[in-house]
């Protein structure tokens, strides 16, 4: 079937807007809401025996892995390492027994990730793949295919594949945790409830589109933009910076909020917008104090938080974006929406080719 943009100006915009539906679609194959259980497809190995997880991916998919590391270590108490695929093979990784190798890829064809998958298999590692294209090479070669149901993603900048990958990652983390006796029925029920709320929370996030569009003019004039986050929102800061770089060509960096004072804060002056991703929760106060260090040096903060967080720390920000109140665990899925919209609108202001940015290919099939 031909894919068109519908009422949208760009595929990227359409794909951002599709997220509540495709994430719900993806979750529906992993959640048994009536039984309050998270399920995976049948597999020929025991997740309870997994003692380490090695995650390999590129670009946006690698940030899903980095968020997954927080989730897997917290929930399942298994050590996780995350590599970008181009570094993985050549650093001669130590892959012990009982390691689960996990690749994450929208296309299932990215050359470096495919080579890493083959390397893991040749070392006797059991592999799983969170993959969007079911007919792809990776989908055929992994021992356990964990499909995302994002549908075809046309925009070179990945959006809906990212959030669908996160949904599957959460399901995998919960299943490993349960298999290892680290997730009680009660905790699993709570997790299922939070995950089931994601599509509605994404819709609430999308409702801020016009406001974000309004800020885009200010950001579009910047030479550099920083993104800050803590915990699972740190890799989301990296993703926000990548998204902005890819389509607006503005230099952007993501940092762990607490790392600012170890160097990057030297970059701050009145001309640098700083996007702070900070849902209220256990890490909020720490992030706020890092944000205040930035503000004290003239940095122009855009604070993305919920009503509680904004009431506490929104004053003095250049702009705020209010997200619905969600559990910190699922915040990266919901906070991805304003981060994507901001990059999108800045690129539109700059007049770049949003769906086909210069120098980039949708699927990178050379090493
Ligand atoms: C995302 O916006 C990028 N275009 C890029 O980082 C992409 O995520 C990466 O090339 C991985 O692609 P894959 O998911 O198809 O393997």
UniProtKB/TrEMBL annotation:
One GO MF term attached to the UniProt entry: glutamine-fructose-6-phosphate transaminase (isomerizing) activity
Record's keyword annotation contains Repeat: yes
Localization per record: Cytoplasm
Keyword rRNA-binding included in the entry's annotation: no
Keyword terms, alphabetized: Aminotransferase, Cytoplasm, Glutamine amidotransferase, Repeat, Transferase
Residue span, SIS domain: 43-182, 215-357
Main location group: cytoplasm
Reaction(s) this enzyme catalyzes, per UniProt: D-fructose 6-phosphate + L-glutamine = D-glucosamine 6-phosphate + L-glutamate
The EC number(s) this enzyme carries: 2.6.1.16
Enzyme class: transferase
Active-site residues annotated for this sequence: 362
Source organism superkingdom: Bacteria
Assembly and interaction partners: Homodimer.
Function summary: Catalyzes the first step in hexosamine metabolism, converting fructose-6P into glucosamine-6P using glutamine as a nitrogen source.
Protein name: Glutamine--fructose-6-phosphate aminotransferase [isomerizing]
Record organism: Sphingomonas tabacisoli
Full protein stretch here: 241 to 607 of 607
């Amino acid at each position: 079937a031909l894919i068109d943009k519908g009422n949208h100006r760009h595929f990227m915009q359409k794909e951002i807007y599709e997220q509540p539906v495709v994430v719900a679609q993806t979750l529906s194959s992993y959640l048994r809401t009536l039984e309050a259980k998270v399920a995976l497809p049948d597999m020929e190995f025991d997740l309870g025996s997994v003692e380490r997880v090695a995650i390999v991916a590129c670009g946006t998919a690698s940030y899903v892995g980095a968020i997954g590391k927080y989730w897997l270590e917290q929930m399942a108490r298994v050590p996780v390492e995350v590599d970008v695929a181009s570094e993985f093979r050549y650093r001669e990784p130590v892959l012990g027994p009982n390691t689960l190798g996990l690749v994450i890829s929208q296309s299932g064809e990215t050359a470096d990730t495919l080579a890493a998958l083959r390397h893991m298999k040749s070392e006797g590692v059991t592999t799983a793949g969170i993959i969007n294209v079911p007919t792809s090479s990776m989908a055929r070669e992994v021992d356990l295919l964990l499909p995302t149901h994002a549908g075809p993603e046309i925009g070179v900048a990945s959006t809906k594949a990212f959030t669908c990958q996160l949904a599957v990652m959460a399901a995998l983390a919960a299943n490993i945790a349960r298999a290892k006796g680290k997730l009680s029925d009660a905790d699993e029920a709570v997790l299922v409830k939070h995950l089931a709320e994601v599509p509605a929370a994404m819709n609430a996030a999308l409702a801020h589109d016009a406001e974000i569009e309004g800020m885009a003019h200010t950001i579009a004039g910047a030479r550099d933009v920083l993104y800050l986050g803590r915990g699972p929102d740190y890799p989301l800061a990296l993703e926000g910076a990548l998204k902005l770089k890819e389509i607006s060509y503005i230099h952007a960096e993501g940092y762990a909020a607490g790392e600012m004072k170890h160097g990057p804060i030297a970059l701050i002056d009145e001309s640098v917008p700083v996007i702070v991703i900070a849902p209220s929760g256990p890490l909020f106060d720490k992030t706020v104090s890092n944000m205040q260090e930035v503000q004290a040096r003239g940095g122009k903060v855009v604070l993305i938080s919920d009503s509680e967080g904004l009431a506490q720390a929104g004053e003095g920000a250049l702009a705020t974006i209010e997200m619905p109140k969600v559990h910190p665990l699922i915040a990266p899925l919901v906070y991805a929406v304003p981060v994507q919209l901001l990059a999108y609108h800045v690129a539109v202001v700059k007049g770049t080719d949003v769906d086909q940015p210069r120098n980039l290919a949708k699927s990178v099939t050379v090493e």
